[in-house]
Amino acid sequence: MGPVGSRYRAVWLAGLVEAPVMGPVGSRYRAVWLAGLVEAPVMGPVGSRYRAVWLAELVEAPVMGPVGSRYRAVCLAGLVEAPVMAPVGSRYRAFWLAELVEAPVTGPVGSRYRDVWLAWLVEAPVTGPVGSRYRAVWLAELVEAPVTGPVGSRYRAVCLAGLVEAPVMGPVGSRYRDFWLAGLVEAPVTGPVGSRYRAVWLAWLVEAPVTGPVGSRYRDVWLAWLVEAPVMGPVGSRYRAVWLAELVEAPVMGPVGSRYRDFWLAGLVE
Questions:
Q1: Which pLDDT score is estimated for 82?
Q2: Res 194 pLDDT > 50
Q3: Secondary structure (H, E, C), 206-254
Q4: DSSP code, position 179
Q5: What's the angle, vertex CA 66, arms to CA 65 and CA 67, rounded to 5?
Q6: CB of 208 within 8 A of CB of 202?
Q7: Class of residue 258 by CB neighbours under 10 A (exposed 0-12, middle 13-18, buried 19+)
Q8: Residue 258 has pLDDT above 60, yes or no
Q9: Distance between CA atoms of 230 and 266, rounded to whole angstroms?
Q10: Contact by Cβ (8 Å): 71, 61
């Protein structure tokens, strides 16, 4: 029982006495209650926060879940100071603990979706400020979603890029951005990525002084100059120059369709 008058003896004897405050003799609760009075390295100093947690691990308490359950481990971990989990009460710790708990809203433990869901709660420079549009995009990149296409696909990169503010692509929702992004997506109607035809097709969507107003006849001609089309002859050929000239309003050649223009153009063709 230890030396007479020692704290350990007081505890040892208390274990034999019926006392409501300590619970029934031999009960688990009493063992815990008494353990709170004994100096024991494994439990930390008497009265310390760590000891409170250590003892709580032994007590049945609905709020913490069943003894030995994963949820209880997390519940108790929330009370212990541990560098790896950040300060008690911090947002990062909440995230760290949430990673260990099964919760439908966050998806299965270890799943990619959960990683994303939790990442939403943590301040991290790489993902931008919590709640920012950039973060929403950054996280969306990690989640499987049919509307954005497969993770890692070129289409998804484009779909997400449409949501991010970036000077090089112009304002979100602008016609220029639509064009810029369209340049990255494989689409039969615009031709192969990087092809000359696509460059022309996309140029059609962009306001540019050099090509004239969108929808104008001049633009039709300017773009036609860049496209391979048998009816106009080879790109850069003299015949094409004449063929295109036929479509452009130019005083020096006379009105489009006039006899004078036919003569003027004929002078250029072999």
A1: 47
A2: yes
A3: CCEHHHECCCCHHHHHHHHCCCCEHHHECCCCHHHHHHHHCCCCEHHHE
A4: H
A5: 120
A6: no
A7: exposed
A8: yes
A9: 19
A10: no
Query: Can you tell me whether residue 189 is helix, strand or coil?
Result: helix
What is the chain's mean pLDDT, rounded?
A: 53
Give just the sign of the alpha carbon dihedral 103, 108, 110, 115: negative
The pLDDT of residue 177: 53
Report pLDDT for 165: 47
CA distance 235 to 127: 47
Question: CA–CA separation, 151 vs 251, rounded Å?
Answer: 56
pLDDT at site 84: 46
| Residue ranges with strand state E in 102-205 | none
Cα separation, 118 vs 98, in Å, equals 7
Helix (H, G, I), strand (E, B) or coil at 103: strand
Q: Each residue of 163-182: pLDDT tens digit? A: 444 444 455 555 555 555 55
- HEC sequence for 1-48: CCCCCCHHHHHHHHCCCCEHHHECCCCHHHHHHHHCCCCEHHHECCCC
Query: What SS3 class is residue 138?
Result: helix
Q: What is the pLDDT of residue 147?
A: 46
The mean pLDDT value for 117-145 works out to 51
Number of helices (H), then strands (E), in the chain: 13, 0
